[in-house]
Amino acid sequence: MLPLDLDPALSFCTHLMYGYAGVHPDTYKMVPLNENLDVDRTHANYRAITNFKGKYPALKPMLSVGGDVDTEDPQKYNLLLESPQARTAFVNSAVLLAEQHGFEGIDLAWQFPKIKPKKIRSTWGSIWHGIKKTFATTPVDEKETEHREGFTALVREMKQALSLKPNMQLSVTILPNVNASIYIDVPAIINHVDFVNLETFDYSTPQRNPKEADYTAPIYTPQNRNELLNANAAVNYFTQAGAPTYKIIVGIATFGRTWALDSDSEIAGVPPVHANGPGEAGPYTKTEGLLSYPEVCAKLINPNHQKGMRPHLRKVTDPSKRFGTYAFRVPDDNGEGGLWVSYEDPDTAGQKAAFVKSRGLGGVSIVDLAMDDFRGLCTSDKYPILRAAKYRL
């Protein structure tokens, strides 16, 4: 995807987030993660993105930092929060970087430690686990209170610095599997941010749950699952803590998560289903366990059974409109070729937007535009997930 490919999407958007910038592990300054693409003269993507303001004057281009892609020394995100000097270096460099390239705001997609994945157990398993749990609990983060307070301070300091500049916004993105109740002091930060973007997906992934395929982004709790791992629960935490509903944005993923099925997998395909690690990589995204929406689309429609192509996936929609769509293919007689995919399509994106509207929330974010069907390969429409969500809003 090139910056020009964004053009058909932008008339639907109020904000455009460029991600991601990162944190320098030694200086704690905010830096471009890919200088060749972001700021180098030949590509200069930062500037290419902010130049869209000329054609779409109402659009707010923002620079986002973190986003789970800044993988060098991941503990620096916590260390930065512990030091007032590091926070100052970060804030000053961030405002400068954004301003130099014409961005009109900063998004903190902060890389907090993740909650530990858990298997979905039978009742007996749960009782035994409950007994075991009374013997030993280890927190994911030994200094969680200090990091919560440090993040509150960072948000306050960033807002202060941005408020000296005209028209600069500040947002916070809650990345998947970050426990907001540990790190986000909602009453303390909510007046300093323009909105909070909740990435309510990847609750189940082949990396975190290699042996069990399940819905990745339910709106409500599917039966016998953790009641906190869904969009509704994420929204409730913020509203119950006093966040105005108009400041809450719900993220919709444009990609699917895939698992390999083997001869031990249940042939009905109903989740949670036994799996054997991530599914094979797609032709464009080239990442195991991940497919963009157009890649999923291509696997649903292959009626001619071209030579060498595996049979297409069977799509299963959710009549309750609560949990999401999945598609699967049972393995062949040798236990090969089985695949299970949880993904968003235009219908489920519309259902999420309807949920957002019914709760009186601020809007939706599309994460991200590059994995929506920006070329219009599925149907002739470009950006079908974005369009469906916007239409329902």
TrEMBL record:
* SMART domains noted in UniProt: Glyco_18
Cross-referenced InterPro entries, in alphabetical order?
A: Chitinase_II/V-like_cat, Chitinase_insertion_sf, GH, Glyco_hydro18_cat, Glycosyl_Hydrlase_18, IDGF
Identify the residues that the record assigns to the GH18 domain, covering every copy: 1-393
Name by which UniProt lists this protein: Imaginal disc growth factor 4
UniProt keyword Iron-sulfur, yes or no: no
Task: Name any GO cellular component annotation.
Answer: extracellular region
Drop me one GO molecular function for this one.
chitin binding
- The lineage's top-level taxon is Eukaryota
List, in alphabetical order, the GO biological process terms annotated in this UniProt record. carbohydrate metabolic process; chitin catabolic process
Signal as UniProt keyword = yes
Similarity-based family? Belongs to the glycosyl hydrolase 18 family. IDGF subfamily.
Q: Which Pfam families does the record match to this protein?
A: Glyco_hydro_18 (PF00704)
State the UniProt keywords alphabetically: Disulfide bond, Glycoprotein, Secreted, Signal
SUPFAM superfamilies named in the record: (Trans)glycosidases, Chitinase insertion domain
Query: Which compartments is it annotated to reside in?
Result: Secreted
